[in-house]
């Protein structure tokens, strides 16, 4: 991360001398407009600062290993504590990061280096470099963990040295947080009243930073070039819809842009549902949740139900699988938050960047394309059986009739086997469309299941062969990519042909303009972060179905994500 002592640069010098604003461009991640001073994260501990390159004597090594173990445990416990206090995506990413802090392969490698004579800080730094290189080479979801890994490294080093915990300082005034990248532990605890926008030079539109920004309801722009040249305290206008950061804009013009965006937000806040276009075409607007607290928060919005209940949170950071009874209690809390309304439960989506200690994950050369999602059940069939039993028990206890879907389905045969097992518990089966093969064969998959839900985050990554954390590939990781929209259209058309619902539960559904395009492509429901429910509902209410279809046609005909976005927005504005 960049420190608060970012030095002046030619860019900022030009801004200050000319008095003219400079517009930096990135990839829009979360819409909205904010005008505030820049805040950079505090300096991270330098791994080699003050470290003497001497070999530890044999008698010192056991004590040094114990010192490292205590420091890593302290860091993990802090993250677990924050996860317990957080809700939604923040809780999940904090729990996952806590697991990484005590990952067995990671800690064993550090232990070995200490046993060979390296001091703890040097052993930790060397191991971090090794794992960063390995994760980067793997790409995909594993490459997403590089920021998390460096964050863990810095927190443990600070603990070993007795320094304050690194991270984002609490600003005195509302500020725009700028960084090269942000770790989940930094973004998960942000106060949206004080950090009013996020801007990074790395990451993509579906990175952890963007997901947390969407949950907080603050604008976010990623993959911004030359961001490091903007000095702390500089006034910037962040437009998360256009993907721009204007440095030292005219104060009056900036205030008007913010006021205009605020009026639009107030209009969205007045939306009360249900989801429908201006001419009455019904589209269910639902919420994504991770736990009971997030479900109850979502119930205070006009969300008509839950389109995605991520069940991973009760499995992560555990040495043992939660019991059927424990799972049923957790699931029951979510079901009870939306009585007699639609709740879609996704079965365990772990593996890759979210390993389970008790599932016996194999080491894989490319885990993003390996044993994750439904594939874990191949080696652990009872894991899925017990989860379905817990969902059925929760349904019986609450009187609910949840729908249940599997992640990472790739073939009709997988869908058929899953559907049969789900129906044996008296539940309604569906599958996630995240793999391009599943989108292309959606008509055959729908012969076996009752609904589809499109996860645009992974569908985009796999379709475009682009790591969603790569700033260099951020435009490829954009769900506005016409190829991704074509696959959504294919799946939605298959659903329409068979009279079965096809929803979207990925981050794309939270973009109001893209939500309208998805409806034009034939999607029947949209599930998003609770903070985006009103904005999406209001956007739909302001356009007709014909406008949505025209926008979808324009986006499909485009040759790039930028052109697709511009053409669709123009079509939506045409009466």
In short:
The protein has 575 residues and is of the alpha/beta class.
Observed structural traits:
alpha/beta, 575 residues, single chain, 47% helix, 8-stranded mixed sheet, disordered N terminus
Write structural notes for this entry:
The strands form two sheets. An eight-stranded mixed beta sheet has the order 1-8-7-3-4-5-6-2, with helices on both faces. The chain has 23 helices and 16 strands. Strand 4, helix 8 and strand 5 form a beta-alpha-beta unit. It is globular. Helix 2 packs antiparallel against helix 3, helix 20 crosses helix 21 and helix 20 packs across helix 23. The N terminus is likely disordered. It has 575 residues and is of the alpha/beta class.
Helix content: 40-55%
What integer is the average pLDDT?
87
Biggest beta-sheet profile: 8 strands, mixed
Number of helices: 23
Q: Based on DSSP secondary structure assignment, what is the total number of beta strands?
A: 16
Residues in β-strands, percent: 5-15%
Low-confidence stretches: 1-18
Assembly level: single chain
Ends apart, CA distance between termini: 46 Å
């Amino acid at each position: 991360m960049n420190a608060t002592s970012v030095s002046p640069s030619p860019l900022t010098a030009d801004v200050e001398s000319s008095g003219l604003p400079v517009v930096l461009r990135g990839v829009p991640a979360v819409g909205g407009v904010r005008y505030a001073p820049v805040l950079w994260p505090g300096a991270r501990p330098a791994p080699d600062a003050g470290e003497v390159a001497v070999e530890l004597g044999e008698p010192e090594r056991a004590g040094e290993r114990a010192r490292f173990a205590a420091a890593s445990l302290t860091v993990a416990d802090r993250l677990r504590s924050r996860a317990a206090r957080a809700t939604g995506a923040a809780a999940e990413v904090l729990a996952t990061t806590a697991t990484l802090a005590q990952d067995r392969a990671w800690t064993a490698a550090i232990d070995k280096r200490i046993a060979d004579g390296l001091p703890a800080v040097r052993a930790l730094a060397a191991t971090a470099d090794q794992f960063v290189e390995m994760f980067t080479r793997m790409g995909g979801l594993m490459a997403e963990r590089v920021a998390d890994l460096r964050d863990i490294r810095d927190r443990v080093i600070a603990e070993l040295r007795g320094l304050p915990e690194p991270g984002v300082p609490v600003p005195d005034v509302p500020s725009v947080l700028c960084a090269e990248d942000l770790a989940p532990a930094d973004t998960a605890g942000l106060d949206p009243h004080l950090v009013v926008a996020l801007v990074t030079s790395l990451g993509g539109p579906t990175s952890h930073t963007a997901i947390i920004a969407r949950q907080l309801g603050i604008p976010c722009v990623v993959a911004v070039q030359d961001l490091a040249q903007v000095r702390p305290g500089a006034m910037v206008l962040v437009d998360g819809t256009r993907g721009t950061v204007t440095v030292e804009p005219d104060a009056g013009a900036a205030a008007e842009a913010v006021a205009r965006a605020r009026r639009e937000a107030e209009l969205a806040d007045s939306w009360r549902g249900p989801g429908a276009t201006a001419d009455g075409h019904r589209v269910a607007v639902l919420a994504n949740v991770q736990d009971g607290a997030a479900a109850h928060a979502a119930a205070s919005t006009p969300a008509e139900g839950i389109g995605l209940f991520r069940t991973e949170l009760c499995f992560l950071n555990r040495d043992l699988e939660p019991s059927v009874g424990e799972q049923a209690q957790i699931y029951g809390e979510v079901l009870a938050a939306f009585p007699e309304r639609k709740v879609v439960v996704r079965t365990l989506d772990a593996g890759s960047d979210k390993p389970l200690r008790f599932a016996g994950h194999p080491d894989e050369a490319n885990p993003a394309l390996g044993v994750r999602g439904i594939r874990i059940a191949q080696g652990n069939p009872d894991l899925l059986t017990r989860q379905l039993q817990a969902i059925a028990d929760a349904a019986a206890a609450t009187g609910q009739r949840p729908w249940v879907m599997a992640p990472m389905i790739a073939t009709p045969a997988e869908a058929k086997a899953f559907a049969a097992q789900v129906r044996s518990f008296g539940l309604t089966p569906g599958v996630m469309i995240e793999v391009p093969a599943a989108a292309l064969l959606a008509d055959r998959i729908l012969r076996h299941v009752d609904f589809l839900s499109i996860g645009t985050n992974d569908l985009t990554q796999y379709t475009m062969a682009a790591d969603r954390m790569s700033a260099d590939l951020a435009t490829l990781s954009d769900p506005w990519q016409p190829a991704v929209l074509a696959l959504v259209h294919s799946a939605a058309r298959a659903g329409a042909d068979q009279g079965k619902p096809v929803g979207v539960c990925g981050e794309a559904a939270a973009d109001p303009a893209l939500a309208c395009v998805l409806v034009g492509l034939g999607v029947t429901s949209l599930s998003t972060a609770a903070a985006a429910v009103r904005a999406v509902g209001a956007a739909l209410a302001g356009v007709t179905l014909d406008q949505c279809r025209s926008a979808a046609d324009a986006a499909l005909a485009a040759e790039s994500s930028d052109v697709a976005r511009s053409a669709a927005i123009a079509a939506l504005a045409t009466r």
